Amino acid sequence: MEENTKDPEIEPTNVVADEEEDFKHVNNPVIGLKPIQKKYLGTANSCLQQTNKFYFTDGDAKVEVVVVTDQIIRVRLAPHGVFLDEFSYAVPKLEQKTTEFALFEDENEFRVSTNVVNCHIRKADFFISFSDAEHHITSSDAVSMHWEENVSFGGYYVFCTKTCAPQESFFGLGDKATELNLRGKRFVNWNTDAYSFQWNQDPIYRTIPFYISVNENIAHGIFFDNTYKSHFDFGKEQNDHTSFWADGGELRYYYIHGPHMMDVVKNYHLLTGTHAMPPMWAFGYHQCRWSYYPEAKVRAIAKTFREQQIPCDAIYLDIDYMDGYRCFTWNKKYFPDPKKMVKELSDDGFKTVVIIDPGIRVDDNYWVFKEGKEKNYFCRRSDDYFMEGHVWPGRCQFPDFTNPEVREWWGGLFQGLVEAGVAGVWNDMNEPAVFGTGTFPDDVRHQYDGHRGSHRKAHNVYGMQMVRATYEGLRNIMKNKRPFTITRAGYSGVQRYTSVWTGDNVATWEHLKLGNIQLQRLSISGIPFCGTDIGGFSGEPDGELFTRWIQIGTFAPFMRAHSAGDTKEREPWSFGEPYTSINRKFIELRYRLMPYFYSTFWEHHRYGFPILRPIVMQEQGEYSNHYRQDEFKYGDKLLVCPVLEPGQKSRKLYLHKGQWYNFWTNEIVEGGKEIEVETPLDTIPLFVKAGAVLPEYPVMQYVGEKEIEEVILNVYFNDIETNSFFFEDYGETFAYEQDIYSEKKFAVRGSVINFVIEQSMEGLYTPRYETYQFNVFGLPFTPTKIMADDKPITEFTINENKVLEFQTNKKFKKIEIAV
Ligand code: GLC
Asked: How many domains is the chain partitioned into structurally?
């Protein structure tokens, strides 16, 4: 083995005493566990400006600082002055959005400033730090950026180490299987098929190298856009250091200023994009299993849903629908006439979603393999042999999804499935997973959209590019219809193409707890449309665990029950009473609240807000909130606290400041404190923020079952002016991109003598229903007069629960309820 020698030209000028030990766990193939010799930036001695880009150098290495927006600054390091191509799968277009910025220089530092952020480059040691407009330092290098030559592959291991304050907390990184607050922990990103993963197992399925730091009530984000195996240490090795590094590629990161966590997430979405509006049916309940077959079984499941009157929008076909697990084929024994079956399911309101894996069976009589082989679309090893591995179909080769031509071909393969009526595609095993070896060897070559690389570079984006190919293909074939896709693996930006599930979890209470955290974490890491396998993939839940999981699932952005093939039946009725009725009640609740969920998704799509919001996101200044992980907000108006223990009769939860209504009892509760709430099996703690206007649809067995004749508006009195959104559109086309939608804003404000509700509307869509049914909760006075746009409403009632009920035309502008 070759010894890694120091380059005398760039002897470290600023090595901190114990830095040699700093990254001793890095798995370096060249020097094994010997101390790693790194090279550090020297003194920053000059600066060159090219519009919004600033180049600093120590004579050899170069650092680029790019002003992206007022809040976002990108930093890149080129160890010997040569930057890599400007290319990223995560950030498709780096657009400069800020015109006001300036460079300052004094004897100690260079400073690039926007209206919001300053990026300081200290001359003596090249330390980079960021401060806000009040010159409060939010992030600061503890060591200058450094690197180590990667002798065996070429390129560099790249490192960045920042200081970590005593009460600094860290959130994000996607689906990590651990507590919400990442402080004191270390992680690796290397997409991994992690069947039955355990608490703290790392890495698992996805790579989202983006974290949010909160310290002294100021949040900032770091997005380390590097697709190689990457590592994050949040004060684990050294309590006062936060580090991130990668086994190759460029040290390229974005500093994203808050000051609120919500701003950080919004701005992260500005870089990586938001999720398009999913088809509305995708918000319904989905039933999955490995596998429902033959056709008679699928039909029986569908029939039971309708007989049991448990709403359901989608049934999934797992790998057994295929002929010998060959993608894009049907097993004709089990499914003799797929088109007919899919059509009949569709007539009964069920969408069919099918699984697709990346492994293509090596079989010269199989058209997909033949085409891929002829066109040379399969991945090859460094010496040109094909990358082969065993997955479900046996011996397989794998398309190189990082090649745009391959993606286009793959997208076109869905033609037949779409013609058969399939509405959605489930992208699995795309870490990529290979039996025995785990994944591809490092030397496999990838086209990488013309920026060539080995599997070390492409591994973490392989799954994302597969689902991208699927999504773009479906979009082409389905024309103006919104495709539905779901993926297991992904990289930052994957949300532009798909929803995500958390992989092969286990039917235990511990996993229920973990899933609850994972979904919050995914939400604030830029993956809005996410869900867990309700009930747990492997193992057997009892009725209680399954029901508690359905309850969480009701408030998961994506709701799907799934189970492994060797488990007992796992449908909402499988556990008998009282479970069936409670499961029905919650799934119905999901359909009732669907317009709220849909509107919240619109807020994500349009404004970049996360769907699920941990409590820390509401009150980041309260340090105790940094460690709350059970309760969360769904959008701005609902606070949910699932029950995560067996036999629990009541539980504690924290309501953030403000007034709340208990959803089940309408009781008003003051927030800003912990409360104890009863948790009988048929409820979970659910609170509505005062001032909310919560739209509600009638219960349906599937989305679009009935024409909506009136929408219920549940209005919760508040004496502080409060706004709510209500979004509607056709639900399955992209017409919203041409402004064919209706975004209504409700502004309410109340006093001891009156309550005013105002409505304004944007967009070109007009829903068919004409009336709103109002339910007004918590009025502090007995109403005697209701005016809708200066016309009196004479018919109103106050029911036995003191809820004021009346109807209006949907077009009202102002309603005044008065004593
Ligand atoms: C993987 C998936 C699981 C699927 C199974 C069979 O384990 O994670 O959801 O059911 O493969 O396709």
From this structure: 4
- Give me the helices (H) in 329-379, please: 338-347, 367-374
Domain boundary, last residue among 656, 689, 722 = 689
523 by DSSP, 3-state: which?
helix
Which residues have a Cβ under 8 Å from the Cβ of 323 and sit 6 or more positions away?
329, 330, 331, 332
Q: Which atom of ligand 1 is nearest to the CA of 291?
A: 10
For the CA atoms of 620, 621, 627, 633, what is the dihedral angle to 10 degrees? -40
- The pLDDT of residue 98 is 77
**b/e burial code for range 93-108 (CB count within 10 A of at least 16 → b):** ebeeebeebeeeeeee
Nearest-atom number in ligand 1 for the CA of 564 is 10
Place of tokens 């809708």: 788
Identify which of 318, 487, 488 to mutate to test ligand 1's pocket (most ligand atoms within 8 A of the CB): 318
What is the percent of the chain where pLDDT is above 90?
Answer: 94
Secondary structure (3-state) at 14: coil
Neighbour-count burial for 702-714, b at 16+ CB within 10 Å, e otherwise: bbeeeeeeebbbb
Both 320 and 286 in one domain: the answer is yes
Residues 669 and 751 in one domain: no
* 502 CA → ligand 1 middle, Å: 11
CA 666 from centroid of its chain's CA atoms? 32
Q: What pLDDT digit, counting tens, does each position of 571-590 carry?
A: 999 999 999 999 999 999 99
26 domain residue, yes or no: no
Quote helix, strand, coil % in the chain, to nearest 5: 20, 30, 45
The verdict on the CB of residue 318 being under 6 Å from ligand 1 is yes
CB of 504 within 6 A of ligand 1: the answer is: yes
Q: How far is the CA of 537 from the centre of ligand 1 (A)?
A: 9
375 and 485 in a single domain? The answer is yes
pTM (two decimals): 0.95
User: Is the pLDDT score of 478 beyond 50?
Assistant: yes
pLDDT digits (tens, 9 = 90+) for 413-443: 999 999 999 999 999 999 999 999 999 999 9
What distance in Å separates the CA atoms of residue 150 and residue 29, rounded to the nearest whole number? 9
Q: What is the DSSP string of 709-770?
A: -EEEEEEE--SS-EEEEEEE--SSBSGGGGT-SEEEEEEEEE-SSEEEEEEEEESS---S--
The domain that holds 768 is classified in CATH as: 2.60.40.1180
Q: Which of 289, 355, 426, 538 to mutate to test the pocket of ligand 1 (most atoms within 8 A of CB)?
A: 355
Q: Are 812 and 788 in contact (CB under 8 A)?
A: yes
Best of 293, 396, 429 for a ligand 1 pocket test (most atoms within 8 Å of beta carbon): 429
- Assigned domain for 540 exists: no
Atom of ligand 1 nearest to the CA of 504: 8
Strand 484-487 vs strand 424-427: parallel, antiparallel, or unpaired? parallel
| Closest C-alpha to ligand 1, atom 7 | 504
* In-domain check, residue 24: no
Domain end (from 641, 659, 689): 689
Residue 95: predicted pLDDT: 83
- For residue 571, give the amino acid letter: E
C-alpha dihedral over 23, 25, 27, 33, to 10 degrees? 100
Q: Which domain holds residue 628?
A: 612-689
CA 372 to centroid of ligand 1, rounded, Å: 24
In tens, the pLDDT along 158-202 reads: 999 999 999 999 999 999 999 999 999 999 999 999 999 999 999
812 is a domain residue: yes
Q: Do residues 255 and 321 share a domain? A: no
Q: What is the pLDDT of residues 604-633, one digit of tens each?
A: 999 999 999 999 999 999 999 999 999 999
Dig out the tokens for 710 from the structure: 């009136």
Residue 498 pLDDT more than 80?
Answer: yes
Same domain, 261 and 289: no
Which atom in ligand 1 lies closest to the alpha carbon of residue 429?
Answer: 1
247 Cβ closer than 6 Å to some ligand 1 atom:
no
